[in-house]
Amino acid sequence: MLPSFLSSPDELNQLADDIKSWAIEFGFAEARIVEPDLAQYKDEFNQWLNNQYHAGMDYLANHGDMRFYPEQLHPGTRRVISLRMHYLPQSVETVDRLKTKNKAYIARYALGRDYHKLIRKRLTQLAKKIEQRVGDHGYRAFVDSAPILERQIAEQAGMGWIGKNTLLLTPKAGSWFLLGEIFTNLPLPVDEPTQTRHCGSCTACLTQCPTDAFVEPWVLDAGKCISYLTIEHKGPIPVELRRKMGNRIFGCDDCQLVCPWTKFAKYTEEEDFQPRHNLDSADLVELFEWDEETFLKNTEGSPIRRTGYENWRRNIAVALGNAPTDHATTYALENALTHSSDLVKEHVIWALAQHKIPR
Fold it and tell me: What positions does the entry give for [4Fe-4S] cluster 1 binding (predicted)?
């Protein structure tokens, strides 16, 4: 039972304003409120699945219609509070690092602490702050951890629009931010939805994707996406895509980097998003020589753990095949032949061949 004062529109408006202020205090860049209408995306999503564009991410085909009906995921849901948080450190290079082929490029969201842990903690703090005001409000917090159409929710909340690269864009900050949600049974006033997708005739993200992963605007074939290949994919990386991966060993930011809205990016003030273990500037050879114990130690509390040690070395082997030929590179690859799994060895042999060293 909600407090009687929440039946007053003025009180609800004030609560919504307070929630947005509290969100800023907890480190979020913005919070908006929506009563989402997601059933309209059902046919489009199912067609995407039918085309096998989800590649090996079978979990995306699970949970039935739950992602289209928030009240099925969390009974009693009346509103969703959509929030975003900046993650790009100001000191971190982006385009220049991609051009330095003997250095590793790791998606900039993954350089520091796992965002799931950080954002989930802040969402819970915000939800409890609301609870102090109104009592139990039947909430549940999510951070990329359930069948949720979070970008569509954010778009309907008026936070921005979904770009042709399938990322949420906003003129306030480009796309260098992460999303989180609080499902609540509070009948809060909702914000105006985004009316227009402001990509216009621009196709930079589509034409400059290294692996041509975009089938058409707003449609991504995950099986060709470097983020999928280096994080989610199990097994060998398709040979025809290896040269196109360059020095990207975990994730890919290219479709953000070429987007004109990137110029409005805001930098993070969160210490937890600052790079750990020099991951923003590390040499490929240095990372390739980590043993499993070092990998586990240096990726503790990091999203990089998700790919696993074997796939980490697989990815770096490909990047070393794309690196300039020098003694350190070829020595590291040849040395790996004697103590690598069959999966890694396959990619090492390919990498050596790129340096004209047959095996």
Answer: 199, 202, 205, 259
